[in-house]
Amino acid sequence: MDKLSGKKSGMAAGDKSTSSDGADDKVSHTTIPEDRADDKVSRYTTIPEDRAGDPSVWVTRYLDVINAFGRGVLSDMETQRATDILAKGCKRLTGRDLEDAAESFRDPISNIVGKESILDLSEAELLEVAEAIKHIDDLRVTDDVKKKWAIAVKKVIRLQHEARSDPCKFWAYVGRDSEDGNVFKFSPIHLNFFDVWNDPDYPNSLIMAPPGHGKSTNLRGYICWRIGKDPNRRILFITDSADKASKEVRAMKRIINSSRFHALYPKIRILGRTDDEQDTGDRFTVDRPNRLSREPTLEGYGIGSRINGNGYDIVIGDDFSPEDVRNQGYLRTQITEKWTAVVEDRLRDPARSEIKVICTPWHPEDTANKIAEQVRRGHLKRWRVEIDRFRIKDDADGLAIPIWDRFPSSHFEDKKIRQGEVRYSCNYRLQARRAQSRTVRWVKYYHSLPNHRNTLEKDTFLFSALERGEKWLSIDPSASSGKDSSDHGVGRFVITEGHYGFLTRCWFLHMGPGAMEDWIVNEIMSETARPYYGVQIEAQGGIKGMVSGWIDNIKRKLRERGYPLADDIQFLSTGTHMNTGVRQNISKMQRLAESTGILESGLIRLAGVRATETAKMADWYEPIEGSEIAKLAEHILTFDGTNRSDGVDMVTQFALTHRHRLKNPSLPQDAPEKQRKSLGPLHDSLVSFLHVTGDEQSQTAYGEEERFLDERRSSWN
Description:
By secondary structure, the chain is α/β, with parallel strands linked by helices.
């Protein structure tokens, strides 16, 4: 039996039933044409044409079916068939599920108990509940309980009135946090979003805000509120890709189909194929007065998609410029032209149209910044631009001031290190800048020579950490071995137990694929005291097959030569994305730009030498003159994407792949929101490392380091 059917016997039609056994009515009738039932079933599924849109008539017929089944007039199969016909017909002709329509036949108190939450009831249902609580004497509950229910009903009705009038309160009522599914916790910045969008004086708006701060989540709520408030409005939703647009449209469909939304707007439903409307992943139409409009209620596109010639009342842009515009001028121009010449032209009535844009800026000349500039010059009217209130600013000590309690100050301090000044300023200060002439302005070194005259006692602890660390070979192979081809770039990297990164050695090798394969085998077998943990080889384009063959042959040769860890060493074949979203095949320069923060902040330090033995300058380092790493550093600092060495690519592939594993050596890991004064990144990294080791010698050394730290503080203050 269908879950609406109840038990087989004992269920009556009730006072609201007006038909007994489906007797002939002296009016015209209609049946569902798709289901050609026999005469017996058709008696119970025939509906008067003039009442086909009334859900109560379908429920009455359903009660007739249940009564007939209880008396044995209809068999199990006939009852199920009649129920299916009635369920389909009710949904198609009234827009309501038969089960939902049947709830009106329950007493209001049973209805409220049966709902998952009182917030899911519409205002009409709540008023019925309030009336029932007031007048029904025998509810089998105490007067105190009745009073509590009546108060709860009044509160919910008031909340619903407020939610329908205020989009922010609507989102608190209906929406949920996309991370944990709980009620969304608003911050002042989110309230500001809604205030800008709902400003009656400025129908057009541009908001710039940092990534990860709830832009899309809250925009979702605002769009659904607009649909509920005025279903006639047609909305064009634009984002950076068709895939994201489709995901957002589907998310908004789930919101509109939710019980909370229907509690506020019970007449709003998404139309489907049976209504001769499209309900797809990128568009949908709700039941609305202007049913003759050819445009859907909401339609989503990626900015690069072919946008149809439909007309809309509202255009909403959600981060529609991809990050690639940072480095690709032609793409910036293309998107701006698409926005102004295609997207904006889809607005049908300039007097009533609206444009809402929210984004993170990528470049001073991207579309959003051009809009802001045109507004400043007075060329665009009725626009409100809000940028400054959403910036991540620094306090007097240079530390980031959060604008949402989800992210502490330390989160942004880490972003400053990992992203570099240009990218951080763009993403979080909302100050898009052009890249400087040098992609990487400096690199940082560590003291790597145990027998050098400037070696200090504390260096021995770093040497020990490097010996125990996780050792990797990073290789960027040359595509050929010809006279004019690039060198193979090879680097030995170590990630210590404290998660600090070091480049201890590098090679520039000009040899054929077979000789290079043997070189890798010999290098792996030569490191017996502390074996390599892994080998990372860039493999894309034409060399992908060669690298795959290398890996198979290297493993085989290691086994043949009796290497005991041949099956344990990790081989990482770096593909297009390196688990970071950075596409290698766009530009070597872009990869280096992505690595700028990692290199400039010292998340990976290069082998060098202490420049002086003077106590106050004990942490000043420089490259080892004439070394391969000094040569590599010069390549990094002067790289223009064309020099004949793959050493730079070898560094960037390792940096981007392991970036999320590396700790910032300039920030103590147990630091409070306000970081202590750093006396040198390497010194701080050593102190953190000594915390980890835990043996007596390290604890003693840690005490010496703290005394040294105190002395340097007093000498510098």
